[in-house]
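Anyone? Bumping this.
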Amino acid sequence: VALKTSLRQGGKREISKVKDEEQEFDLTPVSQAEIEAAGARPRKGEAPHERGEDLLERYIKVPNRMLILYSSEDDVLSRYVREHWAALDSLSGDICDIFLSLLQLTGDEDIYSFLDDLHYIPGAETIRIDKLPMILLWSDSASLSISLKEFADDVATLRNVLRGVFQCLHDIGRGITIEDEGRFDAMLRTVMNKKDARASYSITIDRRVTVNNTTNNNADRGSVILSDNSKARNISINQSSSIQGLDLSKLSEELARLRAAMKVEADGADPAHDVAVGHVASAEAAAKKGDRNGALAALKSAGSWALEIAQKIGVEVAVAAIKGVTSGAGAPPSSTLSI
Amino acid sequence: MIRKRAMNPVRQEAIIGLLEWVRHFRPAVRSLASLTKDRFMSLVKEYEAAKGAATAKKPDAELWLRWEETHVWLSKHPSDKEAREKYPK
């Protein structure tokens, strides 16, 4: 007997017991009826399951993706999305997809509950609770965040911003890049009737490391954060300098993830794996305390298996650190960190 | 004529994180619906481990059941009529 969770009308999650595997997986997919049950108004015959496309195939095919990040406190925006679903659907063909979850529509999931799931989304590091609601738009090479905070209760401006963003995307006709910054900035200033320059600006040199260049902390209105992920594709760095400039806070965060992944992958019969996990835990603790040398010394003993797992899960700062300390004594090596 | 279809609802936002992870770290995988349940769950377990999920080693964790449901959603497409019968307005 297995536990099964399912969505009922209104999106409420129910746990029930089922007896066989067939029943366990007997769940309703996202359909027009289910979208309607969640309170939205889709156009007839436009439910995702009627489009006949695999979600990942479409994700790869469409060059821009968008999340509208809001909580149940953002009543106007939440209602706007449900009531104007069909109009939002009309904003794009294959230039940008807006992803919304049924749980978000029904209020059972919101930005607070799925922040952890955004870990790998480019630009997620620019999400700030005090800037919500937000639009997060990303392509393979850049990400764009727009705070809707200033006009969260202004339906007309919300509509105009969404239209403006999609008009920009149609004009661009491809995935956004850092070069499109001016276009979005100009559009937002026009839509918001704002003469001053944007509130803040940031460049992402790694999809999860943001260098902020804040110019005006007081101006929340229509802040634009444009990040360039393309710069992260091939960054040539000197390893010794990368270790010298190590972000210990980031390293400690990544080592926590690495340690968890290693525990999952560990072969219970191999004590060397337990030892390696211990070294990573020591490095994590040292990094957390700001002890750079202690962290690197522990990582030096972590071994190739730790590096292998770190590369597998994509913790780039940890990978660079481990490579840096294990690539030979003395001469500072140089390498290319491909992210 | 280009069909307008910007809205792409998913059951849970977690699926977006998975899509981005698969696209970035497992580029050879081009379709989720075509994966067997075992292969899909193997990918999901790698993804959750990459995030540092504490439940990654518990085979009966609810987390995995939720992902298994997602696989059904990805691989089966019942008609709208069936959905209406199950979720009457």
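Late reply, but here is one note on the structure posted above: Chain B touches chain A through 61 residues (CB under 8 Å).
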